[in-house]
Amino acid sequence: ACTLNGRARQLEGHPMTRLLDAIRQTGLTGTKEGCGEGECGACGVLLDGVLVNSCLTPLAHAQGAAITTIEGLASSEILHEVQEAFLEYGGAQCGICTPGMVLAAHELLSRIPEPTEDDVRAALAGNLCRCTGYMRIFEAVLEASRRQ
Ligand code: FES
Ligand code: FES
Predict the structure, then answer these.
(1) Atom 1 of ligand 2 has which residue's CA nearest to it?
(2) DSSP letter assigned to residue 145
(3) Residues enclosing ligand 2, CB less than 6 A?
């Protein structure tokens, strides 16, 4: 058993099932599959507060852990700021990378409330976006940090 977005939950599957699939099978489909190979960050979730690529994480690794998906951030103040800034700055276009970007941004802002642009670039280095050219995303995260 583990905790999924604050609730005790039994995730079904073989121990080697991808955490990504086990999460999506619960109906929480905010976690996206981009590459399926650990390269793009679209499948990012927090495992005991640490950002991981759920496409590379076997279900066995999540047993006993607290998992937070994009849905689990919905009521947090930081998410609200990040979401609003993404909207204003055009940080989300097709949306495939967005949940992973927002989780990575959230993780950064919880660690470093006033990041520099270099901090933002480093924190989002594992997240690929085919649409925005990244600057809008970086600007949105910096704007969210100013508004906190
Ligand atoms: Fe997991 Fe791309 S889908 S890193
Ligand atoms: Fe399309 Fe980033 S908005 S991949």
Answers:
(1) 94
(2) H
(3) 92-98, 129-132
pLDDT digits (tens, 9 = 90+) for 60-87: 999 999 999 999 987 777 777 888 899 9
- Tell me the residue type at 128: L
Give the predicted TM-score (pTM) of the model: 0.92
Looking at the CA of residue 91, tell me the nearest atom of ligand 2.
Answer: 3
* CA-closest candidate to residue 145, choices 103, 108, 118, 98: 108
Cα–Cα distances in angstroms (integers) from residue 50 to residues 25, 45, 53, 90, in the given order: 22, 8, 10, 27
Sequence-separated (6 or more) residues with CB below 8 Å from residue 121 = 138
Q: Is the pLDDT of residue 138 over 90?
A: yes
Q: Report how far residue 5's alpha carbon sits from residue 148's, in angstroms, rounded to the nearest whole number.
A: 23
Determine the average pLDDT of the residues in 36-59: 97
If we measure between CA atoms, which residue out of 86, 90, 96, 10 comes closest to residue 55? Answer: 96
Cβ–ligand 1 contact at 51 (below 6 Å): no
Q: Which two tokens stand for residue 52?
A: 């991981």
Q: How far apart are CA 117 and CA 38, in angstroms?
A: 24
